[in-house]
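Re: [ENG-882] Designed sequences occasionally contain unexpected residues at chain ends

Forwarding the minimal case from QA. Structure tokens:
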């Protein structure tokens, strides 16, 4: 599981600690100042956001997450908060939370380049999350193995290939992908994603030779809480024929509940898969509706060579070789431009490859010169500008309203945020009465009505 590289955070910390040498504020000083502001105004979204960013810069990721989660509750639509919450979550290894935070930034964030980077990062994190889930499942095998399963949850294992033409071995994954897709067309079944199943098998070190056995399959089925697994083999017969054998295994008892087989020419591999899929529905006790049967009869492509390239792409994707995977998927599309599954996979792995190159450093570089970047810069100097947040707080609202109505020469000195909020830097100016009397306390009176809507 690859995270943002530690040296990035370390470099940021070093830069913060040495800031005083260039006239800036150290990370520690920024944190202390913002902590004081947060104690005074705990319900300020801007202060909690800046404090969270400062904590992140100091590599205090748990504290950063706490402060940023508070800021999110106060202002759910602030992109900068969502971005740094995602960065903190990823540093903590919470990939699901990081994905949720990045998705929020894509919705509310203001910097288009960062939105694009996070779109790609999400694709990369999806694969990392699958790998992390597999690792966690193996680590918790003792507890997961004893949990109840449903006979309607099905896991399809890669079919073991045997034959003289080893270039056909990738069909193990491609054929399993087809079966998973077709079995999922029934509303009566829930299929485990092939990629998740493969990640678990890889974590169990069962795929070193591309093969699994019945005992291993049942074990894997328990870890994904499947009630039944579909396992089998693909056997090349002669130079031009292929035979498929598949069995339905009951996970709790490890007993075979039914088996099917069919043979056809290699070029008719899709006809072969459809026959196997329809026979498996019978073994699973599923009656298909006319619409479901019609959907199953559809072919993703009619080109064996395109499908073989697609299957090679699946193997490269499983191994995290996104550039190779994209090349195979593009080759499948070149052979059959109508192969939509290959087109979709090409886009996914291209984004995943781009997402692997996204780091905290590249994201923060994209923020430079933007309004959100200004919020981050202010946070590193212990300031909490309202900037991009929609929640300014009651104190700021009253103060800004009063300042707009009757600014004074002392406004620059007294216009600091209530309890540590944003600081008003625009010099005040006297109203006509103050200018005429030479005083900031004119004798005239006025009534000011401030209407505050109930949230």
């Amino acid at each position: 599981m690859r995270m943002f590289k530690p040296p990035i955070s370390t470099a940021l910390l070093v830069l913060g600690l040495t800031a005083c040498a260039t006239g800036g504020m150290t990370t520690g000083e920024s944190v202390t100042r913002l902590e004081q502001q947060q104690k005074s105004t705990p319900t300020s979204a801007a202060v909690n956001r800046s404090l969270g960013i400062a904590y992140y810069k100091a590599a205090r990721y748990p504290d950063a997450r706490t402060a940023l989660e508070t800021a999110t509750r106060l202002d759910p639509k602030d992109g900068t908060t969502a971005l740094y919450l995602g960065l903190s979550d990823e540093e903590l290894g919470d990939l699901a939370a990081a994905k949720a935070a990045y998705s929020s930034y894509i919705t509310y964030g203001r910097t288009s380049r960062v939105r694009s980077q996070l779109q790609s990062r999400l694709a990369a994190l999806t694969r990392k999350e699958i790998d992390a889930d597999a690792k966690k499942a193996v680590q918790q095998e003792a507890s997961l193995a004893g949990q109840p399963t449903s006979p309607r949850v099905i896991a399809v294992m890669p079919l073991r290939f045997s034959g003289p033409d080893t270039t056909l071995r990738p069909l193990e994954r491609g054929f399993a992908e087809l079966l998973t897709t077709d079995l999922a067309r029934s509303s009566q079944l829930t299929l485990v994603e092939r990629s998740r199943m493969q990640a678990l098998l890889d974590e169990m070190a069962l795929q070193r030779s591309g093969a699994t056995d019945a005992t291993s399959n049942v074990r894997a089925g328990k870890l994904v809480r499947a009630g039944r697994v579909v396992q089998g083999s693909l056997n090349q017969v002669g130079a031009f024929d292929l035979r498929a054998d598949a069995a339905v295994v009951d996970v709790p008892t490890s007993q075979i509940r039914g088996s099917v087989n069919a043979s056809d020419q290699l070029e008719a591999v899709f006809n072969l898969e459809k026959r196997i899929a329809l026979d498996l529905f019978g073994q699973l006790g599923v009656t298909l509706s006319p619409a479901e049967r019609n959907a199953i009869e559809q072919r993703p492509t009619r080109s064996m060579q395109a499908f073989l390239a697609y299957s090679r792409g699946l193997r490269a994707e499983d191994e995290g070789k996104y550039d190779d995977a994209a090349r195979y998927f593009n080759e499948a599309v070149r052979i059959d431009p109508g192969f939509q599954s290959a087109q979709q996979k090409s886009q996914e792995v291209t984004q995943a490859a781009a997402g692997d190159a996204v780091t905290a450093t590249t994201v923060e570089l994209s923020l430079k010169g933007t309004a959100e970047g200004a919020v981050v810069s202010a946070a590193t100097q212990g300031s909490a500008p309202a900037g991009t947040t929609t929640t300014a707080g009651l104190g700021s609202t009253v103060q800004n309203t009063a300042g707009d109505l009757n600014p004074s020469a002392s406004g620059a000195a007294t216009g600091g945020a209530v309890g540590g909020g944003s600081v008003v830097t625009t010099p005040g100016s006297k109203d006509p009465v103050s200018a005429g009397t030479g005083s900031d306390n004119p004798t005239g009176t006025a009534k000011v009505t401030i209407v505050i809507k109930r949230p």
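QA comment: On inspection the terminal residues look reasonable. Residues 112-139 form the longest helix (28 residues). Proposing we downgrade this to a documentation issue.
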